[in-house]
Predict the 3D structure of the following.
Amino acid sequence: MSPTDRPDRLRILIGCDTFAPDVNGAARFAERLAAGLVERGHEVHIVAPGTRYRRTRPKVEIIEGQPMTVHRLPSLRWLPHDWLRFVWPWRSKHYARQVLSRVRPDVVHIQSHIVIGRGLARIARQRRIPIVATNHVMAENILDFTVMPPFVDKLVLKLAWDDAERTFKMARAVTTPTRRAAEFLERTIDLSGVIPVSCGIDRRNYRPDATPRTEHRILSVGRLTSEKRIDVTLRAIAALDPSIRVRFDIVGGGDQRKHLEQLVQKLGLQDRVHFLGKIDEDQLVDAYSRASVFVISSIAELQSIATMEAMASGLPVIAADAVALPHLVHHGENGYLFEPDNHAELAARLTEVLTAEPEEWLRMQRASLDGVLVHDITRTLDTFEALYRGEPIPE
């Protein structure tokens, strides 16, 4: 029996406020989830912002090597941000009616309660279509890109969370990437029973390298935005003993790049810091394989796919002790945690890893590889299939 003939095949509509070609954790999760579901024989439709303010016909796009139908909605770029696009909120329910009438899905899975997901949830509820909701949002992700006074930001944020509560209560199930992220959401709004479901990665895509490194290469992967705190890592590198020669590779683009380049000049790190920008998947896998240690100073991670990719590549990880990162990095096992924004402590942790004996580095490498097993994409797909069908989720 072919996958398309399966009696348990589902027609799934995934609503995203960010999706390919965007490069961020929420988009990457939606892409991998959708591709995995298609590979399992399901029919997947995506609703996402278009690349211009123009309505286009749905078309099949190849995402993560799998074909799926993508419905691109007219969108505008949010000028304070370097790539973010949005659909007019007052049009979201209109578009939702059109897409839901065309697709007639068995289930709707929203990746955000902000605009597209908000509209889809309300119309799907009216039509008695089951809804699953996943939250990828942290307050820091929103406030960094407003152009309003702080007191207005706080008011807007409260109204947004109140609306999020109304949206999430329409869902059959609400998920977040980790238990800490679930607890954060339950503390923030009047909601209980949030289910932690890892974003998941396909470990087969990465190439752990156990051979001794010929140079100390520090790697950071992610958007160059203020909540990622790349400046903390730069200051830590400047504080290292000069005898520890390092190369710091920064993968990703963002609105903070110019500021960070200026800080590199100020700290005299021009010969040690390399901005690689946005790179393709093969180049990213190579960057992980070459690195000696992965560093993430972010204070706003609900999971961090990049950290899981680093672990799947067999890297020790040094991470800020914030939000969900301690869920991945176990202090003294597969790396170390440091106090957020404390560049001196980060420098000390870097020194520990970079000067470790080969046997100690291999021990941390094995711990990373063991720790990422639970985040295999297969378990993630099993869980969401159960949620879509209204079945008990696997342990």
